[in-house]
Queue: 3 jobs
Job 1
Amino acid sequence: TQLLEQSPQFLSIQEGENLTVYCNSSSVFSSLQWYRQEPGEGPVLLVTVVTGGEVKKLKRLTFQFGDARKDSSLHITAAQPGDTGLYLCAGALYNQGGKLIFGQGTELSVKP
Amino acid sequence: KAGVTQTPRYLIKTRGQQVTLSCSPISGHRSVSWYQQTPGQGLQFLFEYFSETQRNKGNFPGRFSGRQFSNSRSEMNVSTLELGDSALYLCASSLLPTATDTQYFGPGTRLTVL
C-alpha cells in the first residue's frame, strides 16, 4: 500500500511551460520534503515544509503544504532543460523519528 | 565538508550469497538511515540508527540487518540474497533523527543479484 501517492509519474514538456506535481495521502505528516534525484546520484533536498498551508518559493519552484498536512504540490514556472530529473516527495509521520515515506516519483523531461 | 560516502558503489552477487554495504555520514552527523530504491517500489525505508541504536525499522525480512559504530559509520547486511534484492541502496545522514532535520543522501550502492 503506497502511503504517499505522487502524480504524474512521467511528464514530458517543452521549455517554457509550467507544470505541477502532486503528492496526496490519507495520513497526516509532521513535515514533508521534496527531493530531486539525478541518474547515478542520491536524492538532493529541495525544500522542507512543516506548517499546514505553508508556501515556499525557490526561484521558479513553488512548494505548498496542504492545510490538513496530508498533501503537497510542487509547481515549476517556465521549465528549463536543467530542471530535468526525478522529483520525489517524502513525508515524515509523527513519532517516527527521521523515517521518510516516499512517493513513487515524477520523472520530468524538459525539451529545449 | 565531505558528503555522505557509500562503498562500494557497485556490487554484483549471486543468489544465496550475502553482502555488506558501508556508509560514512557527514562529519558530526549522528543519525543514519538506509533506503532501498527499485523501479517498481520506489524508495522504501529500511532502518534508522542513532548513537549506535536502531531506532526504527521498515517492513523488510530479517535477512536485512544493520548496525552503527561509535564513529557513526553504519553498515547494512543482506544475507541469502534473492533476485528481488537487486536495487540501489541509499544511505542518508542527519544531525539528529527528527522529522525536520535535513537528511543528506549518499550516491548509493547499486547491487545486482544474478
Job 2
Amino acid sequence: DTAVSQTPKYLVTQMGNDKSIKCEQNLGHDTMYWYKQDSKKFLKIMFSYNNKELIINETVPNRFSPKSPDKAHLNLHINSLELGDSAVYFCASSQVGHTDTQYFGPGTRLTVL
Amino acid sequence: RKEVEQDPGPFNVPEGATVAFNCTYSNSASQSFFWYRQDCRKEPKLLMSVYSSGNEDGRFTAQLNRASQYISLLIRDSKLSDSATYLCVVTTPGSGGYNKLIFGAGTRLAVHP
C-alpha cells in the first residue's frame, strides 16, 4: 500500500553512462515532481508534470529528460552521467490545486564514480 | 541570497526542552508556508502549514510574519523522536500559474536523554 514508490533505491554507476529512475504513485494525484537533494541537503525542484503535461522545468541540463507515460508514473532518464549528478533524487505527487501537500517517495541515492 | 534561509544547527537539546527554529524568505510574492520534517536518509514529510494568525498542533506551534518575511516553529516538551531535520518551505508562483515549493536547507535537531 505504498503511496509513492521509486526504483531503484540505490544506483551506483560510472561517468558517461545513461540511467533511468522510475516513480509511481497510487494516490490518484494528477501532479508529479522530481526533486534533487545534493550533498548540502538543499532540496530543489527539477520538473513537474500535471496529467502527463510538463508544467515546471527548472534550469536543468538537457541530459535530464522526464517522461510521463500516464498520470501515475513519472520517470527520469539521465544521459552521460557526470560526477556532479551524484545526489538523492526524490519523486513526489500532489493533487491539482494542492501544491503544498506533496507526498514524497523514499528517494533514489545516485552515486556516479 | 538564498530564497529560504534557515540556521542549519544542529540544535542539541535535552528531552523536555523547548526549542525554536527561525526561517526567512526573500520573495514577497510567496503565498503559502510550511514546515516539513525529514528524518535521516528518509523523504520529507509535511509537518504543518503556517498561517499569519499562528497555528498549533499539539506540542508544535508555527508563526508567520509576512511583513518581516519570517517564519518560526516552536517545539515544546521535546521528545527523542523529534530528532530530525526541519525544513522551512514556501510556495512561489511558477510559470503557467502553477506554484512551486522552495525548500530551505533545513535545521537539524538532536534531542538527547
Job 3
Amino acid sequence: DTAVSQTPKYLVTQMGNDKSIKCEQNLGHDTMYWYKQDSKKFLKIMFSYNNKELIINETVPNRFSPKSPDKAHLNLHINSLELGDSAVYFCASSLVSGANVLTFGAGSRLTVL
Amino acid sequence: GNSVTQMEGPVTLSEEAFLTINCTYTATGYPSLFWYVQYPGEGLQLLLKATKADDKGSNKGFEATYRKETTSFHLEKGSVQVSDSAVYFCALSVRAAGNKLTFGGGTRVLVKP
C-alpha cells in the first residue's frame, strides 16, 4: 500500500493549458505539502495544509492553486501553464504541522512544451 | 537565510567501497539536520537525523555527525551495496522558521557490482 500517492507520474502539455496533479495519503497525517524540484534538483516548499487549512504559502504565482477537500487529499491545480513550470512536483505529508519528518510521494514530472 | 550545499553527483562506486557525501549548511538559529534518500521510482524517505551538535545519526549502515564548528553533516557508509544506489538529499529545519525543511540539491549515487 503506497503511503503517499500522486497522479499522474508524468504529464506533458502545451503552454497555456490548465492541469491538475492529485495527491492522497493513507497515513492518517494531519499535514500535507507540495514541493517543487527545479532543474538544479533543489526541493522548495510551495504550500502546506494542516487539516484542510492553508498554513504555508511561499512565493508562488497565483496560477498555482492548491485544493484540500479533506485532510487525506491535497491537489495542485495550475492555470495558464508556462515553460518555467516544467519541474518535478512532490507531494508529502507529516503527522502534525511543524513536523520535520515528512513522507513523500514518488513525484510528478510536468513538462510544458 | 537557511541553505544547504552538498556535493554534486553522480558518484559512481564499486560494491563494498567507502561512500562519503559532503553536506554543509548555513542557518539562522540552531538547526536540526537530516539525510533523506530517494530510491528509483519512489518518494523521498528519511534516512537519519541529528538534532543537536555532536549528535550522530545512523541507519542502515549510514552515519552522519552534526558538526557545529564546521557547519557540516557529511554522510558516510563503510561498505556500499548495489541497493544503496539512490539520490541522497541533505536537509535542515529550524524551529524558529516553523520547522520548514530546506533541502540541498541531492547527490545521485550509483553502485556497480
